[in-house]
Amino acid sequence: MAVIASLALLIAEQRSQQLDFLRAALSFVIEPVKHLVDLPTVLIEQASESISAYSTLKQENEHLRQDQLIHQTQLLKFEALEKENIRLRALLENSFKLGEQVLIAELLSVNMAPYEHIVVVNKGTRFGVHPQQPVLDANGVVGQVFRALPLSSEIMLITDPNHAIPVQVNRNGLLTIAVGSGQINRLNLPFLPSNADIRPGDLLITSGLGGTFPQGYPVAVVDEFTSQLNKPFANISATPKAKLDRNRELMIVWSNSTPVPLITKSPNLPQTEGFPQTQVGLDELPPVNKKPLANITATPKAKLDRNRELLIMRNPPVTSPKPSISPTEEAGVE
Amino acid sequence: MNNYYSLIKIVVSIFFAMCLRIVPLPPELAVFNPDWVLLVLIYWSLAVPERVGIFHAWSFGLLTDVLTGRLFGQYALAYSLVIFLCLKFHKRLRQFPLLQQELFIFFCLLLSQLLLFLIKNLQHPAQLHGIFWLPVLTGTLAWPLVFTLLRFVRLTRRWSRRIKA
Predict the structure, then answer these.
(1) Left if phi > 0, otherwise alpha if psi is -120 to 50, otherwise beta: which for A275?
(2) B 54-113 residues inside an 8 A Cβ radius of A
(3) How many domains does one find in chain B?
(4) Terminal Cα-to-Cα distance of chain B (whole angstroms)
(5) Is residue A133 situated within a structural domain?
(6) Which long-range contacts (CB under 8 A, 24 or more apart) does A72-75 make?
(7) What is the pLDDT of residue A331?
(8) What is the dihedral of CA B139, B140, B142, B143, to 10 degrees?
(9) What pTM does this model have?
(10) B73·A10 Cβ contact <8 A
(11) Residue A185 burial (CB < 10 Å; 0-12/13-18/19+)?
(12) Furthest CA-CA distance within chain B
């Protein structure tokens, strides 16, 4: 009887999604096991945090504040760049994908099964997590949500042998697919011919094809390229950018798939090319203000009177395509 | 009261076996991690066959399926078949010396691992590595440990009652 029941379950689950509710219900029973196994790691972490010296904490705080300053300065520029990108895309009559929303989830240190690179995080369908959502960390793509339970979800890493991710070489836009190798620090690129333009050191980013991963996130760096003489495909391996085995915090991403409307077609925005505004005469202005120049004030974004740390920008070298952090220098206000 | 007490023992021991099952180990050691849940289930089915039956094995198998993120019913099938064998032979097995018991456990674990492999192979053709059978070996070696530990757990109630009396 048990045999028949389990066979029925096996077939039912393989063919359809109808047993998800049963799995969700049983997962409530299982949840304490996962948290119990995770407990020692959490305790050790907390203990080491609470006994670490005051000076180390202060140093770390200092470091983090400096990082924060640098990153925020970069973000200032990023906002302007994003607007510019939207404008340029509008000129090209191209739609633009809006930014993503993220949820920070913490890893539970449990080991589901050997040979498979699947990790468990502590956020589930209660937080709106659903299967096939991309998962990132601070350095790059980690994987995708494989199965979402109510209180936790399982994430398949990009290095799992059953996982493949569409990527693009950042240098020249060459499209290919990166397949997991089963080793935690290696990805394979099995579908590139021996004469492909790819070199060790090339950055692979997500191409956005396939629709699961948003475009433009770093995935891996190519570290080996050997062409096989009598085979059609080269032997290429890459190292993932994300720290797959060392991170405790991951980001689950909701990519917003509604494209931003094209800016030039919206009627209420001022158009710069058509000169329709120049026909507005002076008498149409409010009568109080007869001066030719309007009186507009603006508040500076920088906190001029409250900052003790400033960034002095050196001119970035012209050849580098993106601004790097290194040419900035910190200065203290005396 | 006694019924509840021993049932709690059984459930708690399986709970700990499940913890051991998913304990984070470095990948070199993780391939050695034996099927603790099955070992504990085998012990209880041999020790108290009137309490732990195929239904228990089946439901704990389902829980293990959820725990390890497998296809539903995979462990349930393997566990219920193994426990069926254990229940059938439990009288004879209790008389066996430890070495012979180990041999029986070895074949039980092998059967469960074989079933798991067959089901995995049905989903999509899988490659068979040598390390796939390692948990069977380590499980057999771990059996005396599980046996003595659970025997101790099972008998502590009698001691406490003796102290009370």
Answers:
(1) left
(2) 54-55, 57-58, 61-63, 66-74, 76-77, 80-81, 84
(3) 1
(4) 17
(5) yes
(6) A73/A311, A73/A328, A74/A323, A74/A325
(7) 52
(8) 120
(9) 0.70
(10) yes
(11) middle
(12) 61
* B84 chain-A contacts, CB cut-off 8 A: 2
**Rounded to a whole number, what is the distance in Å from the CA of B149 to chain A's nearest CA?**
20
CA distance B130 to B151: 33
Q: Is A184 exposed, middle or buried (0-12, 13-18, 19+ CB in 10 A)?
A: middle
**Residues present in chain B in total:** 165
Q: Is B8 on the interface with A (CB under 8 A)?
A: no
Per-residue pLDDT reduced to its tens digit, A66-107 = 999 888 888 888 888 888 887 787 777 655 555 667 788 888
Domain that holds residue B12: 2-24+33-164
**CB-based contact A30 B71, cutoff 8 Å:** no
Query: Are the C-beta atoms of B136 and B31 separated by less than 8 Å?
Result: no
Question: From A33, which residue of chain B is nearest by alpha-carbon distance?
Answer: B19
Whether residue A174 lies inside any domain: the answer is yes
Taking contacts as CB-CB distances below 8 angstroms, the residues of chain A near B22 are 33-34, 37, 110-112
Which three-class secondary structure state does DSSP give residue A74? helix
Q: Is residue A117 part of a domain?
A: yes
Total structural domains within chain A: 1
The CA distance from A152 to A105, in Å, is: 9
Q: Which domain holds residue A134?
A: 97-257
Which runs of consecutive H residues, i.e. helices, occur in chain A?
2-15, 20-51, 54-91
In this structure, is residue A152 part of a structural domain?
Answer: yes
Q: What is the pLDDT of residue A266?
A: 42
How far, in Å, are A15, A52, B22, B64, B110 from residue B71 at the CA level?
11, 44, 17, 10, 20
Q: How far apart are CA A66 and CA B26, in angstroms?
A: 35
Cβ A6 vs Cβ B79: under 8 Å: no
Higher pLDDT pick, A221 / A184: A221
User: What is the value of ipTM here, to two decimals?
Assistant: 0.73
Taking only the tens place, the pLDDT of each residue in A4-59 is 777 777 777 666 666 777 778 888 888 888 888 888 888 888 888 788 778 888 89
Find all residues with CB under 8 Å of A8, minimum gap 6, and list them: B73
CATH number of the CATH domain containing A251: 2.40.10.340
User: How high is the pLDDT of residue A273?
Assistant: 44
Tokens of A227: 């062409």
